[in-house]
């Protein structure tokens, strides 16, 4: 009998009603299964660490309650394991919220496990670190450091499941490891069975971005049509003991699972397809094939595995000064010329109103924007109708708040002092977080799991089980 | 009625078309590195992609953004290929001033490339 992996969310900010249809399908199938929430991006974690500085009770996925409330009771009642990296910077805090939610739902007996060991901020500077090959940034100084988290593999998560946890809460782990762990636990695969590990990891890779494998992030009307995108079904992956995979989705949902949707996601964020590095296995996709078996059922075969890399990737987040944006619209007759004049006025003003090291960028949305370089190379040769609907956008960055405030205020001032008919100004600026990637030795990382004990007094403590 | 043309037009051998007519693509980012996975709709067009969507042309397409290197990994089983482009994200998701710091939209910059189907 296959094991079913369902996806409940693919990023922080994903649809909070997506898991309902997935859980309904998992219950209907009456097979061993797990539901995974992947909600932790590179930047999300830094935001969580920063939030926790201001409020020690925060630092986990802000939508945790909204994501779990509709499905937690059903999952507990039907033995569907839940795994999520929604613990972010504060897995213990997330455990407490889940314990309280389960109690409200009449299941105070819930077993929640927490994964430890990803946060290496305290020992960062004493570790033997290597810069990730494509990394350009230097290691920040201690006072700029916000967080340093290792991408853990599936072992400590599988350990948590061995403690008979119903819910496994993690901070930073490799996203697909959230899916590999229940497979390791269920099938009892060996940790050096590289081909099976690779299949399990790719099941996770395909499902970790939620709808991106089942019709989300895919539609291109007239070329790649997707039915029912508003109710797109999040993926369910059927995994067999031998590692074979079939990607599907719940009945009566929108979206589609086709060879095309699966191929696009198979290589999503992959570099060398013969050496896709994960903490538990190096995956070789060079012989992978996809085959449509039936509508919304696609098999992936030919995935192979090799030993895992020696080192684990670590994301370091640190203070990156300030960044701001401001925009103003021009529409109707001669709108392009008015927007271009506004841009010119801003350029002239910023020369004497801001320091030379202020980094800025000006886009005219409607003419060119996202494809362009910071210096506006495409903008200079682009053509567009004189009459139209254009939006001038300024982006600025500086280590000091005041200069970003000043630059964006200069755009605001175009209301009264710029070209005719400018309107709809929006302006915002905030602290920025930089991230850099480093590699740490596996032996310097100590991942383990513990069962969470919630306290009626709200005091949090957890019983520690050291990894064997 | 005004309606945008957005249907696939028949592809005639040797007349130039945008890659968008022949292939689909998805972008992914890690730091300053972008990957673009490109797949032929019709496996018969895979050879055209292989011959014409070269590392050199992709590097030239992204030169204005400071791309420093392009590597192409052909995947014949999938009638596709993966491009890995370095230093093209102007700071990446956390550092870019570009509206699209991830470079998610850039799959369609690639699909705007002109090719001659054989």
Automatic annotation (TrEMBL), chain A:
Residues 5-449 form the Acyclic terpene utilisation N-terminal domain. InterPro entries: AtuA_N. This is DUF1446 domain-containing protein.
TrEMBL record, chain B:
It comes from the Bacteria. Pfam families: AtuA_ferredoxin. Residues 17-115 form the AtuA-like ferredoxin-fold domain. InterPro entries: AtuA-like_ferredoxin_dom. PANTHER family: DUF1446-DOMAIN-CONTAINING PROTEIN, PROPIONYL-COA CARBOXYLASE. This is AtuA-like ferredoxin-fold domain-containing protein. It comes from Vreelandella boliviensis LC1. The lineage of its organism: Bacteria, Pseudomonadati, Pseudomonadota, Gammaproteobacteria, Oceanospirillales.
